[in-house]
Design a protein that fits this description.
This is KilA-N DNA-binding domain-containing protein. By secondary structure, this protein is of the alpha+beta class. The chain contains six helices and four strands.
Length: 174
């Protein structure tokens, strides 16, 4: 693998967005990663549109695009004339069959690895949240148990104070 083809994890992960409850990447970011122009990427997709159903790729609505551009720092001149395509993980996999350059193949491999890491991080985070909830429940139960122990101790001390002195049974020493 050529060292020029290797992209940093940070470069790729910074281009993954969460839109419509899915992790996606914008067409322009993918074009930069693949080393091609955005229009070339869009042309390849349009030529093979049957490979990209709605759950693989979709076009952003005007509202979604405005919301996204408010979150991303963009230049004030130029910009896009058409709404961008966004690709889900499956759509990015499908791009590898549409774009056949060596750079596209290596970039796709790296992107898939990043998506896998992101998914694993989400699973790990979910597991940690579940562990924290279990610990909180145990602590709540321990608090209740401690209160119960103190109430029993209070009852025992009250009984001890109320007891009459016992008469001794046995031999008397004179």
């Amino acid at each position: 693998m050529d060292s020029k083809l290797i992209l940093s994890e940070e470069t790729i992960s910074n281009t993954i967005y969460y839109i419509r409850n899915q992790k996606v990447m914008l067409d322009r970011d993918l074009a930069v990663l693949y080393g091609i122009e955005t229009r070339v990427l869009k042309q390849a997709v349009r030529r093979n549109i049957t490979r990209f159903p709605e759950d693989f790729m979709f076009e952003l609505s005007k509202e979604e695009f405005q919301n996204l551009t408010s979150q991303i720092v963009t230049s004030s001149w130029g910009g896009t004339r058409k709404l961008p395509f966004v690709f889900t993980e499956h759509g990015i996999l499908m791009l590898s069959s549409v774009l056949n350059s060596e750079k596209a193949i290596q970039t796709n491999i790296q992107i898939m690895r990043i998506f896998t890491k992101v998914r694993q991080m989400l699973l790990d985070t979910t597991e940690m949240k579940l562990d924290i909830v279990q610990i909180q429940k145990k602590l709540e139960n321990q608090g209740k148990n401690i209160e119960l122990v103190f109430s029993y101790l209070d009852e025992l001390t009250e009984k001890k104070e109320e007891q009459k002195p016992r008469t001794k049974i046995g031999y008397k020493n004179n």
